[in-house]
Write a structure and sequence with these properties.
Helices cover 3% and strands 60% of the residues. It has 460 residues and is an all-beta fold. The chain is globular and about 60 Å long.
Length: 460
């Protein structure tokens, strides 16, 4: 196994037509014709025991921090005869407070002022034999990385900006049968702090994804249906040789650069989803897929000519190289979920998923994820939730390693008035490598973090 390095890894729609706005009291939302508009804002405090997700060693101590958070949101739901439209958008501000400005740690370099997420869906002729669907999701999120925290470090955040657009034709031959023929186009941009790269640009890499998506559903019972899905994805990276960022481990090098080839991926799945009894709902899909990498795109990269043909930077032989494709075992796809509601307002859910996905700092990751979740509502005022999850990530490519991710989450919310609620949440998350010599090879990929938040949410 190669010695890895740590790297943490729009649709803009306008509803046609205008109608007078209906005045409403706080908590009743805003109504305009067929639309319901719900603005809200959350503010509170957030704490982390390990802000930079550090391993806690002498060279990388854990740093706790407290932040003020502000998150306004807007939800728009429209159900008309010709079109259904849904939009959810939010902005997140997070400003950390430095209680000890004289020490060597400066949590303000993890401030986040640009977190934005938005999702929109439009269905045209939703009850006709032939219709259309358009959906888009935009996301710009910052994640603190393990970095020097001294003053003068402009940012300690890795920033991912992505937009996923899909749309196409929906055909409904009958009330129980439907098909969708869609096209998908997605863009992803990854930026890292300047301190992690020798490049003059903070952009680490950019990716394009595009391809067809075909789905079918047959509702053989009122609340139960069979589903089948097929997708084919083309993945195209801007840079096929990326810097191997992070600390040296054991003096061993994967090289100053890591090959990141283009790829093509396909998936075929089928299954059943439905409400089988008044208390029991379940869904299950199985399938198969493959992701094939084109190592020639790395060898043909213009920068490759400066590395020398015999350089280990361009090695495509051996156990762990950028020529790795998904194995037959990794290609098996499983997605199972069962929900049980023993009494009204109380739901227990268990799930398991086995899948694979493209990775930014190596070829791909194959993962197994299992979770158990509780959700409860009491007198429509108090909501409680809890979740325990475990995910095993197996990375393949020039950087090959296995990560175990454990998480325990708790949350509670109380509706003080129709327009004001108070809530809190807490969690513990751990990432640990599964290798026997983990401490020696992958010390910087491990961390524990205790997270907590308290806040108030106002919804008009």
């Amino acid at each position: 196994m190669q010695r890895g390095r740590k790297f943490l890894p729009i649709l803009v729609a306008l509803s046609a037509g205008f109608s007078p706005f209906a005045l409403a009291a706080p908590g009743d939302h805003i109504r305009a014709g067929d639309s319901v508009i719900t603005p809200s804002v959350m503010t509170g405090i957030e704490s982390h025991s390990n802000l930079y997700l550090a391993d806690g060693g002498p060279q990388s101590p854990e740093v706790s921090a407290l932040a003020w958070v502000l998150r306004p949101n807007l939800q728009v739901d429209t159900a008309g005869a010709v079109a259904w439209f849904n939009l959810g958008a939010g902005y997140g501000l997070k400003q950390f407070i430095d209680f000890f400005p004289e020490d060597d740690f400066h949590p303000e370099n993890a401030d986040q002022f640009g977190n934005v997420d938005a999702a929109a869906t439009m269905q045209l002729f939703p009850t006709s034999s032939v219709g259309a669907r358009l959906a888009d999701r935009f996301d710009n999120q910052a994640i603190p990385a393990e970095l020097p925290t001294q003053a003068g470090t402009a940012t300690a955040n890795v920033v991912h900006t992505g937009n996923d657009l899909s749309g196409g034709i929906v055909v409904r031959p009958g009330s129980a049968l439907s098909f969708e023929a869609l096209g998908q186009f997605a863009v992803d941009n990854y930026e890292v702090p300047d301190i992690l790269t020798t490049s003059t640009s903070s952009v680490y890499n950019n990716r394009l994804q595009y391809g067809p998506i075909i789905t079918g559903a047959w509702k053989f019972l009122p609340k139960t249906s069979m589903n089948a899905d097929f997708s084919y994805n083309f993945l195209r990276w801007e840079n096929h040789l990326v810097e191997s960022v992070g600390p040296d481990v054991d003096g061993s090098e994967v090289g100053a650069y890591i090959g990141k080839p283009d790829a093509e991926a396909w998936r075929l799945t089928a299954g059943v989803t439905g409400q089988f009894t008044q208390k029991l709902a379940a869904s299950g899909t199985v399938g198969f897929g493959m992701m094939t990498y084109d190592e020639q795109t790395v060898l043909d990269d213009p920068f490759a000519g400066t590395l020398g043909g015999s350089s280990n930077e361009l090695n495509t032989t051996g156990a762990d190289t950028f020529a790795d494709d998904t194995t037959l075992g990794d290609g098996v796809l499983v997605n199972l979920q069962v929900s049980y509601a023993p009494i009204r307002g109380q739901t227990l859910t268990a799930g398991y998923r086995k899948d694979f996905q493209d990775a930014i700092f190596t070829n791909y990751v194959a993962y197994n994820h299992v979770f158990f979740r509780y959700e409860g509502s009491f007198q429509n005022r108090l909501g409680l939730g809890a979740e325990v999850s475990y995910r095993l990530d197996e990375f393949h490519g020039e950087v090959a390693r296995g990560d175990q991710n454990l998480a325990v989450k708790l949350n509670a919310a109380y509706q003080l008035t129709p327009w004001l609620s108070a809530g809190g949440a807490g969690s513990w998350s751990r990432r640990a490598c599964e290798a026997e010599d983990c401490e020696k090879l992958f010390f910087s990929t491990q961390y524990d973090d205790f997270f907590g938040t308290l806040g108030l949410t106002f919804a008009y």
